[in-house]
UniProtKB/TrEMBL annotation:
Domain Enoyl reductase (ER) per the UniProt entry, residue ranges: 8-304
SUPFAM superfamilies found in the cross-reference section: GroES-like (SSF50129), NAD(P)-binding Rossmann-fold domains (SSF51735)
Any Pfam family hit: ADH_N
Region (Disordered): 1-22
Source species, domain of life: Bacteria
Entry protein name: Zinc-binding dehydrogenase
SMART domains on file: PKS_ER (SM00829)
Length: 310
């Protein structure tokens, strides 16, 4: 089969190679991958790839070999999955606890855009607690997580302000339920009960937007600029602010992912969640797409197809 592997060249980060089909563990199903979606964090790993790195965590396709232990979907079932690695290939072995079945109404392209960004959005909102009637600020809202968080939080009754530098993205995020859109964190009119911070360098400014007793959840550093906090600035900031570090697969989270995937699929099927796919292309265009994703030329998600997407 064909598989994409790292090259170590930032200008062309992956290339095709021939590889044997993966041999599933007893609790894994073998999936014929129809579509996959790279994530911006994966582009950073490709700059200095570890030996043996097999990228790919968001896939959708068809079960061609059911798990030997009897768990999970049967052969012929359309699924979305979140394997730990190896999804940028014609076939991928995926733990059955990280799979969800797809209805006929959901294409492989739409489904592939769900896993990492969607699971992150769900778990961020669980970490934030009840958001009904609360004011929320979402930085870096132009990405996949930002779109999902905005729509889910607004639907739950939050008053959401998003930060995006692109007017077209601001318009789209308002359509998804954002109450306000600003071009920079400093422009946001707080105070906010919850801040979801994903850029890194803007963390001190985002923190200053919190209400007394508010919570900032730090879940990314997309700017790749470390944050610097000054103790004395905090003394003049919100009283009793809480900063929480978050990772969707952290020690109190992680797999299984199947339940969250099934929730995301149901929300899309019911018309309550709308994957924001900025680019769809054949996987021959993966290298170029990864560069554009890393350089922030793609808003929302990019999905690559292997030629058999439904």
């Amino acid at each position: 089969m064909q598989r994409l592997i790292p090259t170590g060249d930032p200008a062309r980060p992956v290339e095709f190679t021939e590889d044997a089909e993966p041999v599933p563990a007893p609790d894994e199903a073998l999936i014929r991958v129809e579509a996959f979606a790279p994530n911006r964090g994966e582009t950073f790993l490709l700059e200095r790839p570890d030996p043996g790195l097999l990228p790919g965590k968001d896939v959708a396709g068809l079960v061609v070999q059911a798990a030997a232990d009897g768990s999970g979907p049967r052969v012929g079932t359309r699924v979305v999955g979140h394997p730990p690695r190896g999804g940028w290939a014609e076939y991928a072995a995926v733990p059955t606890h990280s799979l969800a079945e797809l209805p006929d109404s959901l294409s492989a392209i739409e489904a592939a855009a769900l896993p990492l960004a969607g699971i992150t959005a769900l778990r961020l909102l669980r970490t934030a607690g009840s958001v009904t009637g609360r004011r929320m600020l979402v930085t870096g809202a132009s990405g996949g997580v930002g779109h999902y968080v905005t729509e889910l939080a607004a639907a739950a009754g939050a008053e959401v302000t998003v930060v995006t530098a692109t007017p077209s993205r601001a318009e789209r995020l308002r359509a998804l339920g954002a109450a306000a859109a600003v071009h920079a964190v400093a422009e946001a009119r707080g105070p906010f009960d919850v801040v979801l911070e994903s850029t890194g360098g803007d963390l001190p400014v985002a923190l200053s937007k919190l209400a007394a007793g508010g919570t900032l959840i730090w879940f990314g550093q997309a700017s790749r600029t470390p944050a610097t906090l000054d103790f004395f600035d905090l003394l003049n900031g919100p009283e009793g602010a809480v900063i929480r570090h978050f990772h969707y697969a952290g020690p109190n989270a992680g797999p299984p992912y199947g339940h969250d995937l099934a929730t995301l699929v149901r929300l899309v099927h019911d018309g309550r969640l709308h994957p924001e796919i900025d680019r769809t292309a054949d996987w021959a265009k993966t290298a170029e797409t990864l560069v554009d994703l890393r350089e922030r030329r793609i808003r929302g998600k990019a999905v690559l197809t292997t030629g058999v997407a439904s």
